[in-house]
Write a structure and sequence with these properties.
By secondary structure, the chain is mainly β. Helices cover about 10% and strands about 45% of the residues. A hairpin with a 2-residue loop joins strand 4 and strand 5.
């Protein structure tokens, strides 16, 4: 745990890697338009897996992010 109370988490990407031009269109089944930056921060503070849908050029890909605690 960090001094500010946040957990130190590592991020593993399962499946296709995210690329700089990818646009996240869905997180855990929720459209990105319904999630604020603060909402995403809260989601990603929890140790678990998240399914993302990303748009890469004309393709829609599913990426799994696995957050795990460091130490």
């Amino acid at each position: 745990e960090r001094a500010n109370g946040d957990l130190a988490l590592a991020l593993d990407v399962l499946g296709p890697r995210l690329e700089p031009q990818d646009v996240i269109i869905e997180v855990g089944g929720q459209p990105e338009k319904t999630l604020s930056v603060n909402g995403l921060k809260k989601l990603f503070r929890v140790e678990r897996e998240y399914k993302l849908k990303v748009k890469r050029k004309e393709k829609i890909l599913e990426v799994t992010l696995k957050l795990r605690r460091l130490i």
